[in-house]
Write a structure and sequence with these properties.
Residues 1-22 form the signal peptide. The chain is of the alpha+beta class. The chain has helices at 3-20, 79-85, 237-240, 243-247, and strands at 61-62, 70-73, 87-91, 98-102, 119-124, 131-138, 147-151, 156-159, 165-168, 172-175, 184-186, 196-198, 207-213, 220-228, 252-253. It is 13% helix and 28% strand. A hairpin with a 6-residue loop joins strand 3 and strand 4 (98-102).
Length: 254
């Protein structure tokens, strides 16, 4: 077991002991002078991914009965897959789940190439249509250290103001321009000019598979979303709206 793994395990064990004693969890020490992810005892009452079963690779995430939105908790993954890859689970009240943080103890600015810490997610779309993919994420800064990698093996489209364009099946950078480690729904492919990602038209019951890979250190991922929307040549306003992701119930893995 490597030193980062031991440290991550120790952090989770200490947090659990603190909750059992009824004490508030301490703020996560991202770095001196940095904005820490807010962690409170109240968050322990929420359905955190620290206590959720991981979703096996041969299963997929399903929307609740009658819902057309799939909301996937990012940290509901196996601990060995996460720690071996460089991700750490950090409980936070703003998610309200635990979040995945990439290289949380390293503040260097070296570039991380795609393919490190790869985690695969699979989701079943509940209805016919085209789906927008989104991410609820937080970053330390508006421009620096504000991205991670995503890849859709079957390929994906992107759109900003005009019509759709093919983004391909390779690794794409996903950015957050909020900064201050504030969790917000978004996930665009161009820094400060977010192009949203859209699937091809899919029949109900089809599976969307995507992979993430770490890039910017300290970036935190709370959830991923898929919601159906109408594709239009003027930037598809219906696809831009993400308020339904915040309000949606969490998907179930089976």
């Amino acid at each position: 077991m490597t030193r980062p793994v031991v440290a991550a395990v120790a952090t989770l064990v200490a947090a659990t002991a603190s909750l059992a004693a009824g004490a508030a969890l301490p703020a996560h020490p991202i770095s001196a002078g940095a904005v820490a992810l807010p962690i409170t005892a109240a968050a322990a009452a929420l359905p955190t991914t620290a206590r959720m079963a991981a979703c096996p690779s041969n299963q997929a995430w399903h929307a609740p009965a009658g819902a057309d939105v799939v909301k996937i908790p990012a940290a509901a993954v196996r601990d060995d897959q996460m720690w071996a890859g460089g991700w750490t689970k950090v409980p936070t009240s703003t998610a309200p789940w635990s979040a995945l943080v990439w290289d949380e103890d390293d503040w260097s600015q070296s570039i991380i190439s795609a393919g490190q810490g790869v985690i695969t997610y699979r989701a079943v779309v509940p209805a016919d249509g085209t789906y927008r993919w989104s991410a609820k994420m937080a970053a330390p800064h508006e421009t620096d250290w504000n991205d991670f990698w995503v890849r859709f093996p079957a390929g994906v489209n992107q759109q900003r103001h005009g019509g759709l364009s093919w983004a391909g099946d390779g690794w794409l950078k996903i950015y957050s321009n909020r900064g201050g480690m504030a969790f917000v729904w978004g996930g665009g492919t161009i820094d400060h000019d977010p192009h949203m990602l859209l699937t091809r038209w899919m029949a109900a019951g089809s599976v969307v598979e995507f992979q993430i890979s770490g890039r910017s250190r300290q970036v935190a991922l709370a959830a991923f979303g898929l919601h159906p929307c109408a594709i239009e040549g003027n930037g598809s306003p219906e696809c831009v709206r993400l308020d339904q992701m915040q309000e949606a119930a969490t998907a179930t893995c089976y």
